[in-house]
Amino acid sequence: MSKRKKTLSVLLTAGLGLSLFSSLPVQASNGAAGTKQNLPVQAPNVLAKQPIYLDKSYSFQERAADLVSRMTLEEKASQMNSSSAPAIPRLGVKAYGWWNEALHGVARTQYNPTGNATLLNNTTSYPIDLSLGSTWDPQLMYKEAGMISDEAREVAPENTQDLDYWSPTINLARDPRWGRNDESYGEDPFLTTQIASQFVNGMEGKDMDGKLLPESDGYLKTVTTIKHYVANNSEVNRLNGSSNVDERSLREYFSAPFKGVVQKANVSSVMTSYNSINGVPGSANVHTMDTLLRQTFGFSGYETSDCDAVYEVSNPGGHNWTPPGWTRPVNQIERTAFSIGAGEDLNCNAGYSDGYSFGNTVPAAISQKIVTPTGTFSENDVDTALIRLFTARMQLGEFDNPNSVPWVKEARKNVPEGAWTNSNDNNAITQTKERLDMARKVAANSLVLLKNSETTQKDGSKGKLLPLKVPASGSFKVAVVGYFANPDNMYLGGYSSNQGSAGVAKFVNAYNGIKNAVTAVNPNAEVTYYKGFTDKGNTAKDLNTVDPAAVEAAKNADVVIVYAGTDNTTADEAGDRHDLNLPGAQASLIDQVAKANPNTIAVMETIGQVEVNSFDQDVSAMIWSSYNGERKGEGLADVLLGNHNPSGHLPFTWYQSSSQLPAITDYTLRPTGDNPGRTYMYFNGPISYPFGHGLSYSTFKYSNLDISKKNLQANDTFDVSVDVTNTGKTKGDEVVQLYVNTPDAAPELQRPNKRLEGFQKVSLNPGETKTVTMTVKVPDLAFFDEAQNKYVVDQGRYGIQIGTSSSDADIQQQGFIKVHGDLKPELSVVTVKPVQEGDKEADVPSRVMYDKGKVVIPQVTVSMNDDSLYGYIYKNNSKSLPEGLNIKYSSNRPDVVSVDDGVIRTIKGGAATITATASYHGVKKSTQFVVYVKQGELDGINVDGKPLAGFSGNQYNYSVQVADGTNTVPQISATSHNPDVKVKVTQATSISGTATIVTQEGDYSHTYKIGFGRAPVSADFKSGTLGDQWSILNEAKNNYSLTTDGLQITTQPGNIADGSIKNMFLQQAAGDWQYETKINLSAKPTGTQEVGLGVYDDQNNYIKVTYGTSYSGQQSLNLIRSIDGGEMLFKTQNLSATNLYLRIVKAGSQYTAYYSTDGSTFRLLNTAPISMANPKIGIIATNGTANAAVPINAVFSYLKNY
After folding, report:
1. Rounded CA separation 430/150 (Å)
2. Which of 101, 681, 901, 1133 has the fewest C-beta atoms lying within 10 Å of its C-beta?
3. What is the mean pLDDT of residues 339-351?
4. Does residue 755 contact residue 187 with C-beta atoms inside 8 Å?
5. Checking DSSP bridges between strand 1004-1013 and strand 957-961, what pairing results, if any?
6. Are residues 756 and 888 in the same domain?
7. Does 1033 share its domain with 1009?
8. pLDDT of amino acid 349
9. Segments forming the whole domain that contains residue 956
């Protein structure tokens, strides 16, 4: 049933969308982009009879606010679930899937609204993030990300839907055992910021400075999400552990890349993490989510939880969190309030937890008026979150004519709409030559040459083994040894797409890449593959017995390449490594082969660093990368044969052994006791290779270090330049690395050994010299002082080091600067939490929707360059603005919201944007916020002169129970304080009828429905008679009967959604109640058959709890709700039975379903909120679509109040 309904919703939406788009005005291109991004001082009024949310003269934020203002509370809540945001056909809102993945190529799309995102077939798979980190090449990352986003648009539904990608992962690789180490860009925050920012820019359609490209016409190409915020590096306890870190480490290290990407790329979304930070869950943490991320760093996009992370807040096996001052853990309703109140806008709820989500807990949380650290939870919090979500969708062009969105036009030019399907039948058409060439190029650039020693080769010549010297003719034997060189299935790393035969045909593994390259030089060469193990398994953990025949064969080769690797059996999401050993006997294989043939190259493609002590002295050369994409073989061959001079550098410290590391759950960075510290910044033990290490086939000389200014104040900036000369015979790329240390710092301050503060990749021909210049801001050298709660700059000497790695032995040039004076605070970020007069007393923390005639109070916060905060932070936590700081306000629509002598006041219905500009010591920073003045809402409804219980201005359906024996139809009246609202009342004419109230203010209209009905009546169907309370929708007399066992219905084709369902027995169901039925089936349902209970207003508005099948085809119970034709699945529970009992409990607008197979033990299914004017409880037995399986008989014994 749910499959068919979803399709219907899309069709309805598409039809509505065409009619809406056809009314859009033709708009000149000149200035169009500016109106989207930079609001004019005086904006035009909305065009007549066109809602603001479809009017392109308004900003995306204003349009989003208008759209949200038209939603009911249930509709709002439904849009806050990532996996199942349903359509709202009456508003032209399509069903949307937020959970999509593009970590190293577009890989998953949220097709299925019941769980995980669906794997995509045959899309391009590039090297994994850790490989990109080893390129040290932001520009290359930018180019690759641009290609990923091109492909994302091409495969996205309609080229406009599901374009939010929960990538990249920017957690720092502080511990190489982390199960998701390959998803990281490395251990350093500066390097990660530079690389990750260009992933964001390339994906979102921006230039490398973070500004939208001119050809974007103001639209985002995709939305990216940096994750997992914050301090999330251990899978073993990720669902229930706490990352306990001091504030200095949190600021300087763990949150630093998030701050960097926010400020460098203006990223659109952030995903919070499962773990707690210092005892507070990451998805309910005001300090990290709001105080730091938004107010201090300046993030303005939406925040999403990790999947079911909000569930873990209250899960007894998870955090089971008790907030400060509480005496018990929060429950499922309270966790919603705490999460949204802290800043969580979207609930990634995949349906594999307890079934509670934002979608079915938000209304209850609002009604309970839960007090959180930021204020009393209310619909204002929901509005704020939803506007962020719909702003993102607006920015992608979803609500505009597709022909006006450049990214859509480009995608359809490359791949005609409908030409791509998610199956092998797509023939991998999006894996274009350009993209495959990029995968090859990135693979080559990511390879790190760890070692390249002198050796005596088979022909007697001496020299470095690499690059390989393949003769043009004659005998030349290459042995390629190791399972991963020619695997049964190429492992591409986490979050990779699925590859059918069409995609696999484009793969080039290591063996094929080497063979093709060698034989292209010498057709007579022999390139032979040996698995190297006698084991039959095909995973890393199965490679346990070295094949002596392979070792023997390697003796006679001119060169041997031993290829070792890891895969998802070594570590992955939810599973860390226990040690740093190469899995199985791979290290032994390398050692045995190298001892048999000194001309051995060890190639390692792994999740991270591995122990090499057992073989590194025996091999002549070593190369490392992480999982290196589908063209890894070509990239490797390019390096081995010298067609590409290796330029990769390690993005991490290569520890000798895991015994050097503390427990992975220990998040301490600086040395303490037996803990030697982590990363190159603090670790002081012996290592295999330093951070930044990477060899080349060229040699480079550094000279002429110049520091533009050596005596500086704390707010100064200086340049560091150095000449780099290629002294080799081969063109090569050198990564010039700039480190800064504090040699005179007091030991008790525990300053880092050094910090990376700049790098630049420079390409040089043999003999060529280039001057490389890098700029350093002294404030970037500050350290966080916990006592002062801000960054401070140390006085005295700083060492400026130019090196080829972080090792002191690799320093090529160095000098010193001296810094004097304290860091003077300068404006960095301005944010607001605006409210209206009276909100403080009501404990409202912020709002977007305002009443007419109210003063708006901005509640400004400013963050300085030292991360100090001033102004309103959150409830009972404010700090006076600095003396001399001035703030001015302006409105782009003063007829809607005026600004007079600094006082902001709402004037009339509509949307306006207020710009708040702060000035302090000559520096100006500004922020904008939308003030939406509500239109057309009522203040109240009376029934027979008494206030209607539960009234809310944006709830439009109400059910009123009329007592038995009362035949007088109640009369309604409406109240509104707004003289501009016109009200038309139409009274009901019968007890089962509906009264309507239509309000009109300008072009804004609402229709309120108040239905009058009776309470339901119990029925014993085994009695042989039906009470007169029953009506039958689409009666088919030949297909139902009353038997001694009960009411028997034979299923027939038909659906509730299109009104074609047959023999749906209905009776009025006003008021609160709890009803149960017993069902006996002649067979288990198949296909689209479903049997159960429902509560029905009309074919567009209902809930149903039915036994049928799930998306996966298994028999299951499904709780589904439809509001105005937009279906939402709240819960699927696998079940195999022919006898079952179902219960529905109605409490206001909340409907809770239970089930049992024995009639005594009932289990909760889920709760669905829906407001209906005339609810009727109903019995459902239908075949669904016409081509369903053979009809079955369903016997209902009773429907009774229990």
Report:
1. 9
2. 901
3. 92
4. no
5. parallel
6. no
7. no
8. 83
9. 940-1013
- Bond into 467 cis (ω within 30): yes
pLDDT at 28: 28
Same domain as 412, residue 558: no
Helix (H) or strand (E) holding 155: helix 138-155
Structural contact between residues 173 and 231, judged by C-beta atoms closer than 8 angstroms: no
Three-state DSSP class for 573? coil
Give, in order, the Cα–Cα distances in Å from 32 to each of 56, 92, 219.
8, 23, 11
Find the mean pLDDT for residues 106-114: 90
Cis peptide before 471 (omega within 30 of 0): no
What single-letter DSSP state applies at residue 824?
Answer: P
Q: What is the pLDDT of residue 1002?
A: 85
Phi-psi map region of 786: left, alpha, beta (phi>0 left; psi -120 to 50 alpha): alpha
In this prediction, residues 717-727 reach a mean pLDDT of 99
- Is residue 684 a part of any domain in this protein? no
Domain co-membership, 1093 together with 1174 = yes
Q: What is the pLDDT of residue 116?
A: 85
316 backbone dihedrals φ, ψ, rounded to 5°: -60, -30
Residue 641: pLDDT over 90: yes
Burial 426-455 (b: 16+ CB within 10 A, else e): bbbebbbeebbebbbbbbbbbbbbbbbeeb
- Residues pairing with 1179 in the sheet: 1065, 1093
Cβ contacts of residue 868 below 8 Å, gap of 6+?
789, 790, 825
CATH number of the domain that 907 lies in?
2.60.40
E strands in 1014-1052: 1019-1020, 1031-1033, 1040-1043, 1046-1050
Nearest-angstrom CA–CA distance, 711 and 776: 14
Same domain, 561 and 489: yes
Give one word for 1083, left, alpha or beta, with left for phi > 0 and alpha for psi -120 to 50: beta
Number of compact structural domains in the chain: 6
Whole-number pLDDT of residue 72: 96
Amino acid at 1049: I
Asked if residue 394 is part of any domain, the answer here is no
- The least confident of 82-91, 1062-1071, 1089-1098, 1147-1156 is 82-91
Beta-carbon count within 10 A of 1201 CB: 11
> Looking at 896, 928, 960, which one is the last position of a domain?
928
Helix (H) or strand (E) holding 590: helix 586-596
- Identify whether 657 is part of a domain: no
Closest CA to 573 of 86, 181, 979, 845: 181
Mean pLDDT of the 730-756 span: 98
One domain for residues 296 and 410: yes
Please check the confidence at residue 367 and state whether its pLDDT lies above 80: yes
Please, are residues 251 and 867 in contact by the beta-carbon 8 Å criterion? yes
660 within some domain: no
Q: Using CA of residue 601, residue 603, residue 608, residue 612, what is the dihedral sign?
A: negative
Mean pLDDT of the chain: 94
* Contact present, 551 and 533 (Cβ < 8 Å): no
Predicted local distance difference test score (pLDDT) of residue 351? 58
| Crossing angle for the helix pair 189-204 and 256-265, to the nearest 10 degrees | 40
The answer to whether residues 243 and 150 belong to one domain is yes
For the domain that residue 1054 is a member of, what is the CATH number? 2.60.120.200
CA distance 529 to 1037: 73
CA–CA distance from 511 to each of 178, 485, 583, 914 (Å)?
29, 5, 20, 62
Which of these three, 820, 843, 873, is where a domain ends?
820
**Same domain for 633 and 760?**
no
| The pLDDT of residue 30 | 29
Q: What is the CATH number of the domain that holds 295?
A: 3.20.20.300
Looking at residue 648, its amino acid is G
Asked if 69 contacts 91 with a C-beta cutoff of 8 angstroms, the reply is no
Structure tokens at 329: 């853990």
- Dihedral angle over CA of 284, 285, 291, 295, nearest 10: -40
pLDDT in tens, 279-300: 999 999 999 999 999 999 999 9
Q: So what's the pLDDT on residue 1188?
A: 63
3-class state of residue 290 by DSSP: helix
